[in-house]
Design goal:
Length: about 180
């Protein structure tokens, strides 16, 4: 094998590994990498329920996820299969987030969020008041820019709500509570 072929094979292996771990991350949350996934889903990984997760059990989990993604069963993952795996994991994560949001906002517990329930959220008024620095009842472009900067400082640059901040976007909620 030539050096170029070895380099290409190594790059492909790294890409597949990164993509699989990204899909696992999306599927299993911010700690979804090999060890993080184990911490979050220990019981599911412990196939024989002996209170221990072995390398074999981790390998079996990886193999099962690979087999699920390998829709044409050729033993290889195409770009399309990797994308489909990632989209499926992302859809599951978004569904979980939507359910959690409804659970938090749905005051009458009917399984839906009404306009009244959305308007009753105390953080809406609090967010407006925090952004309206001069208390004139309106948010200017300068006030909006200042709010974005404060939020970025507390949430970590480039990280969104719920990513790397626990179940409820810790940086955002910390910012909302005035701990800046």
């Amino acid at each position: 094998m030539t050096l170029s072929a070895k380099h290409s094979a190594l790059m492909l292996a790294a890409l597949v590994g990164a993509t699989l771990s990204t899909a696992a991350l999306a599927e299993k949350g911010p700690m979804g990498g090999p060890m993080g996934g184990m911490m979050l889903h220990f019981e599911a990984l412990d196939a024989d329920k002996d209170g221990k997760v072995t390398k074999e059990e981790l390998a079996a989990d990886r193999a099962a996820r690979f087999a699920e993604a390998d829709t044409n069963k050729d033993g290889k993952l195409s770009a399309e299969e990797l994308i489909a795996m990632r989209e499926k994991a992302e859809a599951a994560r978004r569904a979980e987030m939507a359910k959690a949001m409804i659970d938090r906002i749905d005051a009458d517990k009917d399984g839906f969020v009404s306009v009244a329930e959305m308007d009753a959220m105390p953080m809406v008024d609090k967010m407006f008041e925090r952004a309206d620095a001069d208390a004139d009842g309106a948010i200017s472009t300068a006030e909006m820019d200042a709010m974005k900067i404060r939020m970025a400082e507390h949430m970590g640059e480039g990280e969104g709500m719920g990513r790397g901040h626990g179940k409820h976007g810790g940086g955002f909620w910390k910012w909302m509570s005035g701990d800046n």
